[in-house]
Specification:
The protein is an alpha+beta fold. The protein is built from 22 helices and 14 strands.
Length: 639
């Protein structure tokens, strides 16, 4: 219990009763320092009327009262104000609050700092009617200090301080109990209480910089908006005239659609060459870019897994240089205004969207989530024409690439004169065909590809051993890989064992450090090596070595043991305190010859135990006091 808490328990109250009086010499006296009643010799610090001291003998919380019974109400606040000012008489260190300021031309929040103060005087006054509570020097500057107890500084006072030009700080003691001890008041005033700058030239400079910055920003915004408007109008004019020119360039001439044969085969040829607003945004006529959309976007799926929409399609056509640079990246606002000047204009993505809507209306496309896709019967027909050829070509290409790589990885003496072309022309034993023919066959191609893939993965060090060689000279490589796999497995086992041992020792070391921090001597060894039911019959050390969860459970057991010991120690301390209190009460209340009899005599009302043993906490102590009162009435007080 610190000094302030001790003073509050004996003399204080959060009810803000008056616990300080002013002596005739002007000094403040605490209620604990005076005699009872009018003998205290104190007056009210606020109104100056005579005070009477009410002490514990009056069965009240000790405090001062006005002798005429009418309290002025301002005493506690006045005392708090006076003691706050007294804190500065010894030139202490004081914490100044953080504030706005300038650093290298920028507004920053400067942190609070603790400074040495030089006490000047109280109640400074000057012709400008500035009356601060305190006048001190800090960091070589004059500093006014305002102490706010019930009322903070208002706008008028702050304005006067600003006009005066002296730095001023306000300390807020409104939340501090009115009966606080001197030390607590000094601590609050100098450090812990909330505080703010009422005036500081650096703050005013920072605010002025903020205002100037805001005004400059507003002016820059206005300039940027005017420039934007001018650029917008220029862009609209460029697009309108550029689109009219593009229309003339696309007029006339014969056009051949790309991949026309594929589109004709499934009946899509009639759906290319459709004109709509914005078609002149493209570098080619509608028959070309629309054929590209059908063939590359919907059939080849060049957009990947993304369902086609107007904007992604426009980006694809832009990469293909099919959209004129002038009409790329047209904002909605610019597009709308351009369409007013040139009704035939629409941005490229909008022209594409109109084309997609046309295809939806002709049952060529269907909605799919947030995009569109070819109708299934059309997509299936297109896929059927190319799938088989693509699969055969891709499979052969992949196999030949891997064979060339495999041969390049073999030592010269094992590879011999084998090349990829010689391998293709060599015989495939199972089918009787050459490998060139076999990898084109529907039945043999998957088998050959699987063996080649296995050999390829083996040589890269990330696959199993192949079950065949596919006619390649890889027998030596297979044996080497078998040995490497066995060695890696052994190395892995040894590494796992070392890591397990390291983790086990790490857990043990960490736990022993925790245990040595809380326990010592025989208690440490007993705890570490005693089997416990809450650890599944293991000792704490065994549980820690067993697993990370065992470490957690062992730490819980250690924490519980420490908690139990701390709780027992607290209970013993509390019991000893109340036993000392009942002993002191008995000595004060009974004749000496009855003190021991009272303290050590068993009593039915106290559970057949003695008052000394019964008093363990506040409740049992009060019951023991009641029994003491009975003894006092029967045997009288001390002589």
């Amino acid at each position: 219990m610190d000094d302030h808490e001790s003073a509050r328990k004996s003399f204080g109250s959060d009810r803000a009763q008056l616990v300080y009086g002013r002596r005739d010499d002007g000094a403040l006296a605490h209620i604990s320092e005076v005699q009872r009643g009018l003998a205290c010799g104190c007056k009210c610090p606020s109104c100056g009327l005579r005070l009477v001291a009410r002490l514990k003998d009056d069965h009240v919380v000790p405090h001062f009262a006005h002798s005429d019974g009418e309290a002025c109400g301002g005493g506690p606040e006045t005392v708090l104000h006076l003691l706050a000012k007294d804190a500065f008489r010894t030139n202490p260190k004081m914490l100044l609050p953080e504030r706005l300021g300038l650093h290298k031309g920028s507004v920053v929040m400067k942190p609070g700092q603790e400074v040495e103060t030089e006490f000047q005087r109280l109640e400074y006054t000057d012709p400008k009617k500035v009356i601060p509570d305190l006048y001190v020097r800090a960091l070589g500057y004059d500093l006014f200090v305002e102490v706010a107890v019930t009322h903070a500084s208002d706008g008028t006072k702050i304005q006067r301080l600003q006009e005066h030009g002296t730095m001023a700080v306000e300390i807020d003691l409104s939340k501090l109990p009115r009966d606080s001890a001197r030390e607590q008041i000094a601590e609050a005033v100098l450090r812990s209480a909330p505080r703010r700058w009422l005036y500081h030239p650096g703050i005013e400079a920072a605010k002025a910089k903020n205002r100037a910055d805001e005004e400059a920003w507003q002016a820059a915004q206005a300039t940027r908006f005017a420039n934007y408007q001018a650029r917008h109008e220029k862009r609209v004019d460029e697009l309108a005239s550029g689109y009219a020119k593009a229309l003339r360039q696309l007029a006339g001439g014969q056009v051949t659609s790309p991949r026309l044969a594929e589109l004709q085969a499934v009946g899509l040829a009639p759906h290319v060459g459709i004109k709509m607003a914005g078609y002149a945004c493209f570098t080619v006529p509608p028959a070309v870019w629309q054929a590209v959309i059908l063939a590359e976007v919907f059939h080849d799926k060049c957009l990947g897994d993304e369902f086609p929409k107007a904007v992604p399609i426009a980006k694809h056509l832009e990469r293909r240089n099919l959209i004129r640079p002038l009409f790329r990246r047209v904002s909605r606002e610019v597009a709308d205004d351009t369409a007013l000047a040139e009704p035939r204009f629409a941005p490229a993505w909008k022209a594409i969207d109109s084309y997609l809507q046309h295809l939806l209306g002709k049952d060529v496309l269907a909605h799919q989530r947030y995009g569109v896709m070819l109708q299934k019967h059309l997509a299936d027909q297109l896929t059927a024409r190319t799938l088989a050829q693509k699969q055969r070509t891709a499979a052969m290409h992949a196999v030949v690439q891997k064979v060339d790589w495999i041969l390049g990885e073999l030592p010269d003496e094992e590879r011999g004169n084998m090349t990829g072309e010689l391998w293709l022309d060599s015989g495939h034993t199972e089918s009787g065909m050459t490998y060139r023919a076999a990898i084109r066959a529907d039945i043999e191609a998957p088998k050959i590809a699987a063996v080649i893939d296995a050999v390829f993965a083996m040589l890269r060090g990330n696959g199993r051993l192949p079950h065949a060689s596919a006619g390649l000279p890889v027998e030596g490589a297979i044996e080497r890989s078998r040995g490497q796999i066995a060695k890696r497995a052994q190395d892995l086992r040894e590494k796992q064992l070392r890591e397990a041992n390291r983790l086990r020792q790490s857990r043990r070391d960490r736990f022993c450090i925790d245990a040595e921090t809380e326990l010592n001597g025989p208690d440490l060894g007993t705890f570490l090596n005693t089997k416990r039911d809450d650890l599944s019959g293991m000792t704490p050390l065994e549980a820690v070595e067993d697993s990370e969860s065992g470490l957690t459970r062992a730490r819980d057991a250690l924490s519980e043991l420490v908690r139990q010991r701390a709780s027992a120690a607290e209970a013993d301390a509390e019991r000893k305190l109340y036993q000392e209190m009942i002993t002191a009460d008995a000595v004060r209340s009974l004749p000496p010859e009855h003190v021991d009899a009272f303290l050590n005599g068993r009593d039915d009302d106290l559970g057949r135990t003695t008052p000394l043993l019964f008093a363990k906490d506040e409740n049992t102590y009060r019951n023991a006091l009641k029994k003491l009162s009975e003894w006092q009435r029967e045997f009288g007080g001390p002589v």
